[in-house]
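Give me the fold.
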Amino acid sequence: MSRFRIGGELDVCRLGFGAMHLSGPGLWGEPEDADEARRVLRRLPELGVNLIDTADSYGPGVSERLIGEELGGHRDIVVATKAGFVRPNADDYSVCGDPDHLRRAAEASRARLGVERIDLWQLHRIDPVVSATLQFEAIARMIEDGVIRHAGLSHVTVAEIEAARGYFPVATVQNRYNLIDRASEAVLDYCEAHAIGFMPFYPLAAGRLTRAGAVLGPIAQAHDATASQVALAWLLQRSPVMLPIPGTRRVANLEDNAGALTLRLTDQEFAHLDAKGLAAWTSRA
């Protein structure tokens, strides 16, 4: 249950690492503590975490470059990166699904990561002003040309996944999902039915789950665990295709998150959290 094969062949630990915050404040520029950022990356293989999620827009290019410099030669590391944004400045995220841009972005990511072929490349957004067919065809060509090995999608619906699968095998989907954010339940169920890896971003609700503690606290105490570990353990038990990617700038937090791999909730604990989380989501939706 702790392993998953992306695209049926890339064997990864189901608890991954989100490298978004290894760039600077606002995901712009260099990290405030570059030495610690590099220590975080070097610690990953020691903990058995071999799935890293990043994007060309983080920095831009900073997160990818650091990963390439620290782990580019590590054969057991699977790096998933994304493209589909243009960032002329720190405050501007412009969606860009132009096929030529997507190809150039993937080739630039490949160079920064120091790999001949990107293991997993994901479309950060489907550009609403560019034909989805053109975007999907561009992705299919990158697979055929050996620029990328597997492809995925982010921020998508079931209908969009099905449309994309007409052009290339969708290996992963990356949507927002956590204990108290259940908008992508149908997408998760679809991914499970079709053996598509589901990478939930904001798996800890950007810290809200760990700060609140009211629901997670008693269960964490019963297991001598932290709230973060309980929240991640719930995700891992929610579905065998679930690949949480919690991010951090600190080695200590990384090590704490990794403890979720050995935490097993009872059926009663899982059901209790599931009901509480769903009720919290329903009250907000």
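The first strand starts at residue 3 and ends at 6.
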